[in-house]
Design a protein that fits this description.
This protein is of the alpha+beta class. 37% of the residues lie in helices and 25% in strands. A six-stranded antiparallel beta barrel has the order 8-9-10-13-12-11.
Length: 369
């Protein structure tokens, strides 16, 4: 996760603009994570210091204006050791010193915050790349799809602005989809497209920028809910070398890829992620990662820039944790039922893919003008 996302979440918390469910989760996170609580305190101090710095700059300009007017009116002159001007200059110098101190303290606090964020958020390093699709890539996809997408104009408001895209997959057959929060960055609603090129409107139910997970709900009368999902969700640990595979939309059609579990932690020892020996590309963000039995073990999210074929997936247990926390504050999420049993155990890989193709979606994120 980028450090800017964590700082943005802290600022939204301090400004009081978080949704109730987000605020409740964030406060619980502060309570259980001393490092993040300290970041909130120090960032609040930093903002106050910046406000003070701004006030002092305004004071400096005000004193300068007053001095100029006094000179123009002849109330003070350029000479005299104890002249009014001398006192004004002394006062100005005093505030100038305080301003410098405030700026220095603010700079130190900013460095501390950046250091803590880097320590707590391994994915913030420049060596990590999020696997979302950028706007131009999604637009090319829309042009390619052309007539394949049904009723495109009727699905989106005329003032919709495309912000990006990625992949997502069902966690409940009734139309609840999990994806990465960074796929929906800067967006207020989305649409999703399945392997048959059917397009559906979707609502953003919840997004957790710290975990980098988000929940969508297909809200479209044209969507027919599935009876059940062919895959389950795995809570248990994995062994190094276990084979894994993924489905997603790094290109215009659904794409399959496979690899192995190469580490039980993510970049810089991030315990919330798996490291995979797998090729992944922009557009794979939000796609499911499954073991050979068809059990979801994670959500694909990032890759390492400097190493070929090294990708990272958010562990599936974080989906369970997210739902447990959100259910306390959001009644709509209480309807989500995640199953652990997979019906694809012992099934040939090509058949596994066919069974789950229409459970994986191309996600397109939008905002309004």
């Amino acid at each position: 996760m980028e450090d800017s996302i964590l700082i943005q979440a802290i600022e939204r918390y301090l400004e009081g603009t978080m949704l109730p469910a987000e605020k409740a989760y964030f406060e619980e996170l502060r309570k259980n994570t001393p490092e993040i609580d300290q970041m909130v305190v120090e960032h609040n101090m930093f903002l106050h210091q910046m406000d003070g710095y701004s006030d002092q700059r305004n004071m400096k300009h005000a004193l300068h204006d007053i001095h100029t007017k006094l000179l123009e009116r002849g109330d003070i002159n350029e000479g005299g050791e104890l002249s009014t001007k001398g006192r004004v200059i002394q006062l100005y110098n005093k505030y100038k010193k305080v301003t410098a101190i405030a700026a220095s303290v603010g700079g130190i606090i900013a460095l501390v915050i950046s250091g803590l964020t880097l320590y707590l958020s391994p994915a913030s390093n420049n060596q990590i790349q999020e696997l979302k699709r950028e706007v131009e890539s999604v637009k090319r996809n829309q042009q390619y799809q052309g007539a394949k997408l049904k009723e495109v104009d009727s699905k989106l408001p005329k003032d919709a602005i495309l912000t990006g895209g990625g992949s997502g997959f069902l966690i409940d057959a009734k139309g609840y989809i999990i994806t990465n929060a960074h796929v929906l960055k800067g967006s207020s609603f989305a649409n999703v497209i399945n392997n048959n090129h059917d397009e559906f409107k979707a609502k953003i139910i919840y997004r957790d920028e710290v975990r980098d997970l988000a929940i969508l709900k297909i809200d479209d009368e044209d969507y027919t809910a599935l009876k059940s999902l062919p895959y389950g969700f795995r809570k248990s640990d994995l062994d190094l070398g276990e084979e894994v595979f993924t489905l997603g939309y790094p290109r215009n059609d659904i794409t399959y890829n496979k690899g192995d579990l190469s580490a039980k932690t993510g970049f810089n020892g991030d315990s919330t992620r798996w490291q995979l020996e797998m090729n992944a590309n922009p557009g794979n963000s939000g796609g499911p990662v499954l073991d050979k039995n068809g059990e979801v073990i994670g959500v694909l999210s990032t890759r390492e820039k400097q190493a070929e074929g090294v990708a990272f997936a958010i562990k599936s247990k974080n989906i369970f944790k997210l739902l447990d926390e959100v259910k306390d504050t959001d009644t709509s999420v209480q309807k989500i039922k995640i199953v652990s049993h997979s019906s694809m155990k012992g099934v040939e890989r090509s058949t596994q893919i066919k069974q789950m193709e229409n459970c994986v979606f191309l996600v397109q994120a939008f905002n309004k003008k």
